[in-house]
Amino acid sequence: MILNKKTMDNNKYNRHSIRVKNYDYSSPGTYFITICTYKRQCLFGEIVNGEMRLNEYGEIVRDEWFCSVHIRNEIELIENEFIVMPNHIHGVVWIVENVGATGRSPLRTFLSFQEKKTHLPLKDPSPPERGREKGKRGFFKSL
To answer: Does the pLDDT value for residue 6 go beyond 60?
Structure first.
């Protein structure tokens, strides 16, 4: 197959989904989440002698992650299943009750609160393309 601009444009939106077909992601289960900062900016601290040292923003992100359980009764978070890195976070979210079609997302609540408290321009300020949020497709959501 010869690839040219037209072929590449036709394949641009022809990607396969990484989601499990017919799986209800609002149902109870365990979800591993990675969230990266916009353009992978090191906003949350630095690693010194092999140890992560959180700055003010890193502490806000950590605190807001664990505040989520007080707002969202349908989730559980365990302290040793979460880590803040200089430009991303990893965490495990246990959904213990069916979220259903409430339209409430545990992740959306967390992102909203941490953004309000840090006042950092963590998202791409340009408008989304074709009604989709910008960010890492599939596995990642960029802050």
So the answer is: no
- Please state whether the predicted TM-score (pTM) of the whole model is above 0.85: no
CATH code: domain of residue 68: 3.30.70.1290
Domain that holds residue 81: 23-125+132-142
Q: Confirm if 120 and 127 have CB atoms less than 8 A apart.
A: no
* Percent of the chain surpassing pLDDT 90: 31
Assess whether pLDDT exceeds 50 at residue 8: yes
Check residue 124 and give its pLDDT: 52
- Our count of domains for the chain comes to 1
Q: 81 CB contacts (<8 Å, ≥6 apart)?
A: 91, 92
